[in-house]
Amino acid sequence: MRNFRTIIMCVLVLSITSFLFSQTVAPDVMEDIEDIVEIEREESAGIGGISIETDEDEIVKLGEDLTIFPEDTIAGDAVVIGGNLSVHGFVEGDAVCIGGNLLISGTVLGDATVIGGNANVESTAIIEGDLVSVGGRVSREKGSTVKGEVTSISLPILRSVLPFAFKFIMPSKPRIPYRPFVSPFTKRMMGFSIYMVKIIALVVFILLILLFFQGGVDRVSDAIESHFWKAALAGFIGLILIVPLIILLAVLIIGIPLIPLFGIAVVAAMIFGYACITYTIGRIAAEKKGWKDKSPYILALIGLVVIEIVAFLGNLIILPGGIFAVVGGVLKVLGFIISYIAWLIGFGGVILTRFGVKKFGK
Prior knowledge:
alpha/beta; 17 strands; 7-stranded mixed sheet
């Protein structure tokens, strides 16, 4: 399918940006946005997601189910992202379902692919191409016909993560949503508590990384301090390439099992890089102040305070509400930007030094 990669790219970008936005905006503001979206959806034509019919007679559904009835014929491909696909009729192209379950009792002239869900093939089903299931199970009844290869790769984590990611793109809510009453102050306290848990987790990770990988941290720190702009550029390019690399691995069937390993490597590189940037900032502060023989753990904690102080003040000032919520919200956004830049530079330093294995430039 010519449009398939473009669709996957848009979905992943929307997932990432929607998640970041939901973490930045205050909970009460986020609820107002959700209410507006729900009203607009109810005033629309009654469609619970996004439907795209291309010039090539392909049908693409985002965030809703698609059912092809026995009397229906799809001249191109049938693609569902974030929903279930049921084929009881005739599909002349491929049948693709991502983040949902695929049911086939009709005819598919191309390939039938399901990622992050189960494939159920009934006895009357005819698939002229291959049947591929990634992250789910394949159930075939006797009498079904699959003329191509049948490939099943079990990745339970993928089946759990995909529906969670797609709910940020097209959330579906009941007509009368149940929302237990929680006071605004309680919500703000919950947000502050979550932030503090994040800080404690970062402290633990930073101390462990310094304990076991002091040499690698020094090499990454030297690269960041000596080649600051190169580290920032490397981190920016590295973040841009994450999504295309995931798509490339997903397109290559043999590369699909590597996607979880790639994700773990990226997360590890970001955490390692963050520990390195906190240590670098603490080391620079020690040099400016003339401090000598400071423990690397103390230096890293100083760097952590420098990076997170604005976000911490924002989460603290926002608690009383009222005008304090506005000021705290501004500080939270500013703190998020500072933290994001720190993560970016640290990630770039890890890339330049190949995870702290080699000194950059040698």
